[in-house]
């Protein structure tokens, strides 16, 4: 149904600037992305999440925006964007944009006026203090790189607030004019045909900042306002929030208090992602089991978005110190692999040592978790990172289409970002063209996996629960179950490299293999008394309902 399309979607995240260059100027563009839509459709993506497409000085990956109503000239025109929407629509794919409205660039005309003219009509678009705030050096998003959250503006003799860098001043959500402007920005893109938005830094958008406090209160009602405003324009519009907040706060993003998700429909599940990282690192299912048991019951039509990597760091900030230490040791032992004291700035393939079997198991685990999976471009071929680039830029390198010059991304000698140079993950070793010809490649595994996923509606819409295996079961095996209207599926994942077997006879006598690294094949009957798993093995078993 249109109003629930996101619950069985596969979201593919990309930056237009680094995906495909059509005119060989070294920068990816909208025409290039449009030319690659058939590739994405074949892969199994049903929704494209585009990182900022707006004009920007580019000091923060495009998140420092100077005009919310335009397209960055480096990637094309509004006409090119409209054609992308048209072509995506013809393939049954939706387009979701980053909505970046907690701050603007300091070069935005609003801030230029506000920071130089005492009588500027845009003065109250931002958050100011007449005196130096006592919490000036608290609440940084990028600790170790960023030193303050309040900066002095010489032109007006006042301090302005910025949760992010000093060149990204925060907008004042308490100003009704700002609220109306945000609604207008979102409605503009929906009118063009955008299916929804990923709301960047969602807690900071609605933060009510005070000069004497490091952390303000939050006006979550703004998301009710935004949802209502957009729903009149497009009934199936999606709002997906980036909000790494405590469990007791999460439901406030979904609902104003009723049984319906009347605010934001989807929230990234940072808790499940962090737990998956701990379980993968320790080769022990306990962390994911605990996270699954703790997942809050969502309002009707609410949904989680699952991920293993995104365009930022692997954020481990919510983990206990011992768990964070274990993940760092396993996947980012070199200080240069870490960032902000809380995260890992690597792609998943090198984090797992390039172990193909372990990589498949990890993505099988992600796809089996409750919610809608989000993939980052290049995940499907096992791309690596470039640690020579600063901070998050390490994982924002050009897409590797082929092994030739420019990796098939561009024929220019001057690329917007350098290609990965690590020998094991360089374009001549990891690229789409080679994997397209190899039926045993990771790319073709992803295609099969994503199409199987689309047949298992229970994952996106069902109720998930941990399957108790008993005291004698290996701790490396995670077993959980999705119960849905069309049937039940059990998912098994062996997080260790040693073979294991589990007894599922409490669930019945037999099941049907939907997917597996170690099974007898799709559609085969499986005896549940002893289900075998190889090292880093996985199996999806349908207990009832339609065959997968």
From TrEMBL:
<keyword id="KW-0808">Transferase</keyword>
<feature type="domain" description="Glycosyl hydrolase family 13 catalytic">
    <location>
        <begin position="13"/>
        <end position="411"/>
    </location>
</feature>
<protein>
    <submittedName>
        <fullName>Maltose alpha-D-glucosyltransferase/alpha-amylase</fullName>
    </submittedName>
</protein>
<dbReference type="InterPro" id="IPR045857">
    <property type="entry name" value="O16G_dom_2"/>
</dbReference>
<dbReference type="Pfam" id="PF22157">
    <property type="entry name" value="SupH-like_C"/>
</dbReference>
<dbReference type="Pfam" id="PF00128">
    <property type="entry name" value="Alpha-amylase"/>
</dbReference>
<dbReference type="GO" id="GO:0005975">
    <property type="term" value="P:carbohydrate metabolic process"/>
</dbReference>
<dbReference type="GO" id="GO:0016740">
    <property type="term" value="F:transferase activity"/>
</dbReference>
<dbReference type="InterPro" id="IPR054049">
    <property type="entry name" value="SupH-like_C"/>
</dbReference>
<dbReference type="InterPro" id="IPR013780">
    <property type="entry name" value="Glyco_hydro_b"/>
</dbReference>
<dbReference type="InterPro" id="IPR006047">
    <property type="entry name" value="GH13_cat_dom"/>
</dbReference>
<dbReference type="InterPro" id="IPR017853">
    <property type="entry name" value="GH"/>
</dbReference>
């Amino acid at each position: 149904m249109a109003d629930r399309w996101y619950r069985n979607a596969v979201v593919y995240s990309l930056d237009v600037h680094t995906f495909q260059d059509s005119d060989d100027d070294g920068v990816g563009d909208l025409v290039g992305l449009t030319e690659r839509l058939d590739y994405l459709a074949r892969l199994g993506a049903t929704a494209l999440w585009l990182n900022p497409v707006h004009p920007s000085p580019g000091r923060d990956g495009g998140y420092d925006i100077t005009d919310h109503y335009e397209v960055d000239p480096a990637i094309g025109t509004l006409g090119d964007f409209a054609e992308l929407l048209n072509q995506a629509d013809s393939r049954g794919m939706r387009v979701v944009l980053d909505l970046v409205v907690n701050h603007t660039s300091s070069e935005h005309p609003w801030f230029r006026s506000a920071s130089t003219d005492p009588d500027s009509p845009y003065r109250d678009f931002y958050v100011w203090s007449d005196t130096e705030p006592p919490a000036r050096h608290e609440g940084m998003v990028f600790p170790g790189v960023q030193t303050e959250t309040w900066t002095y503006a010489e032109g007006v003799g006042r301090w302005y607030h910025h949760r992010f860098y000093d060149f990204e001043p925060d907008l004042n959500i308490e100003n009704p004019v700002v609220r109306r402007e945000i609604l207008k920005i979102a409605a503009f893109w929906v009118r063009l045909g955008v299916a929804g938005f990923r709301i960047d830094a969602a807690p900071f958008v609605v933060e009510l900042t005070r000069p004497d406090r490091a952390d303000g209160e939050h006006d979550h009602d703004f998301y009710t306002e935004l949802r209502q405003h957009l729903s009149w324009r497009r009934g199936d519009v999606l709002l997906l929030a980036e909000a790494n907040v405590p469990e007791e706060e999460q439901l406030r993003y979904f609902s104003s208090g009723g049984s319906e998700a009347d605010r934001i429909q989807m929230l990234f599940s940072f808790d499940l992602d962090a737990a998956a990282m701990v379980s993968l690192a320790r080769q022990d299912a306990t962390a994911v089991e605990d996270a699954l048991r703790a997942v809050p019951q969502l309002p009707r039509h609410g949904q989680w978005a699952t991920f293993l990597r995104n365009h930022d760091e692997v954020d481990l900030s919510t983990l206990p110190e011992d768990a964070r230490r274990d993940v760092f040791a396993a996947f980012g032992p070199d200080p240069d692999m870490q960032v902000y004291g809380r995260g890992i700035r690597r792609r998943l393939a090198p984090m797992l040592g390039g172990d193909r079997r372990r990589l498949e198991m990890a993505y099988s685990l992600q796809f089996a978790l409750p919610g809608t999976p989000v993939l980052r471009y290049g995940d499907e071929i096992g791309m690596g990172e470039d640690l020579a680039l600063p901070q998050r830029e390490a994982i924002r390198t050009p897409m590797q289409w082929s092994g030739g010059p420019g990796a098939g991304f561009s024929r220019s000698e001057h690329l917007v970002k350098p290609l990965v140079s690590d020998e094991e993950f360089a374009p001549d070793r990891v690229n789409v063209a080679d994997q397209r010809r190899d039926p045993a490649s990771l790319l073709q595994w992803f295609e099969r996996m994503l199409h199987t996923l689309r047949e298992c509606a229970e994952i996106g819409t069902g109720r998930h629960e941990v399957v108790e295996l008993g005291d004698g079961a290996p701790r490396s095996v995670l077993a959980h179950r999705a119960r849905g209207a069309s049937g039940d599926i059990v998912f098994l994942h062996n997080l260790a490299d040693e073979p294991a077997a589990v007894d599922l006879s409490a669930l019945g006598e037999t099941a049907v293999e939907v997917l597996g690294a170690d099974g007898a094949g799709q559609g085969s009957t499986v005896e549940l008394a002893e289900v075998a798993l190889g090292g880093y093995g996985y199996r999806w078993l349908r207990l009832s309902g339609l065959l997968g």
